[in-house]
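I had to read the description of the data format several times before I understood it. For illustration, here is how one protein appears when written out as sequence plus structure tokens:
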Amino acid sequence: MEDKTSDPREPVEESTESWARKAWAHFDSVRRASPLIQCITNFISMDLVANVLLSAGASPAMLHSAEEIPDFTPKTHALYINVGTLVPDWLPAMKAAAQVAIECNKPWVLDPVAAGASGFRLKACLDLLKLGPTVVRGNGSEIMALFNGAVDDNSKGADSTHESTDAIEAAKSLAHMTGGIIAVSGATDIVTDGERVVAAQNGVAMLQKVTATGCAVTALIAAFVAVRPSHPFEATVTALSVFGVAGEMAAELAQGPGSLRMHLIDALHCLDRATLLQRVNITIM
């Protein structure tokens, strides 16, 4: 799915224009390749996650049965695991799918929803983290909970009590610990591999009023990484920016959160090269 002759580590280009070109190349690759993304995600997010992937050109598979994983997961181009409505029965399937993805050299992406809300949830997230996800995407509070390895007494569940910029050092440390890419969502989306730090500054505040938009953007990251498995850092940055651009376009038409959701899906489907090149806002920190 990816040109294996390319440099395994793309340089971080410093201009917004060069990042915009990269964003379009990645998005266009998703549309052309239609990567199969296995999604083990929470009940609340399943609908939006599937529709965001479809509108972006990917092929979602909402499959979480442990019995199907040995046969199905090797066929996928990337795996997405989200712990939103976590129950003990789902954990073995999550761990098994991640292990199969690793064995098959497939990227997998973790969304540690409300990681600091309870001891059970935190332990599950830390156990999954030990399996070496390609990318972890969470809000500031979730990333800090993973870094601290402790339940957050001030947790508001999936809502963050920290800005993304508060979690930069925690994210860099986690990247070193896991060997993966850490993305911190917020007013400014932060992405780091432990050394490089890039900010994607697209999006609108109203996205926070639509449930599962965070889950959906993590699924989109999985699709981008699926078509650029050798370049997960760049794929993560551009996926966040593309989703943010679609959010901006949707907000221009929406009357509130309900219509924003509808227009978000349409915007991803209709997003063209000229619009994306004009709107992408990515900077080196």
